[in-house]
Amino acid sequence: MPELPEVETVRRGLEQKLNNFIIKKVEVCRDSTIAFPTNKEEFIKGLLNSLIYKWDRRGKYLIAQLKEVQNENAQFLLENSKNNGFLVVHLRMTGYFKFIENSSHPCKHTRIRFFDKNNDELRYIDVRSFGQMWWINKDLSLNKIIKGIGSLGPEPFSKDFDANYLKKVISKRTKSIKAILLDQTIVAGIGNIYADESLYSAGISPFREARTIKKNELIKLKESIVTVLKKSIGSGGTTFSDFRDLEGENGNFGLQTNVYRRTGKECRKCGNLIERQKITGRSTHWCPRCQK
Ligand SMILES: [Zn+2]
Predict the structure, then answer these.
(1) pTM score of the predicted model
(2) For residues 267 and 289, is the Cβ–Cβ distance under 8 A?
(3) How far apart are CA 248 and CA 229, in angstroms?
(4) How many whole angstroms from 204 Cα to the centroid of ligand 1?
(5) Which domains does the chain possess?
(6) How confident is the model at residue 21 (pLDDT cuts 50, 70, 90)?
(7) What is the tens place of the pLDDT at every residue in 183-242?
(8) How far is the CA of 69 from the centre of ligand 1 (A)?
(9) Catalytic amino acids?
(10) 34-36/132-136 β-pairing
């Protein structure tokens, strides 16, 4: 599943590609991709004549700020144009966007198509179809409608996320530190790959009971998380067979992992073999010698 670095890579691609993209037509190829409003006509109508003004990211959610465009021939002033709510996207397992100049015939996994007046297309493709989209009217509360966003913990890069915060939230938790890192209500955007890689880099065993981890280790862990995520964003996301950027390219050239999917290979630090075991149903990779 795409994690924070992959979603951030997509966000940057969308910002770059979509210049003054005003939605003139929406084609819904699969109704169930729309999570809200429940009526697909309402989703389509709500988005028409919206300028995609800005793309934000929260955890693994992409959030487009929309502006209402009444007369696009007039030199419209963005500051004055009214908000038209948000288009929110969660890519889940296999969702991705493709920007297509002069729209062509869509593949069978195409779920939603957005067109501008030049017939340029922003296409959403999703093989396994777990991805979702929401149009949130400006009068509604995004955090209330999308509970997954409302309950998100701090962003790893924000100043709210530090060793003190971690100490506070895990001080009584008997769950493993790996499970804690995967919990989106504690920290937003970290999934299986980056949890494993960050714990390796911090020298902490994924099996440790969260409450036993000391302050100095938490300082190291926070730093490791930030470093690992930033490095991966810089290289366009890590090794995902399903991940695609806006050009339809796989980000596979990216980051070299230290433990993730390296079971039975030599640890890059000590030469011991990397092991794998499940924690709360997720494959966990670690070096038993380097991680205590
Ligand atoms: Zn090692």
Answers:
(1) 0.90
(2) yes
(3) 22
(4) 11
(5) 4-150 (3.20.190.10), 163-286 (1.10.8.50)
(6) very high
(7) 999 999 999 999 999 999 999 999 999 999 999 999 999 999 999 999 888 777 654 545
(8) 57
(9) 2-3, 60, 282
(10) parallel
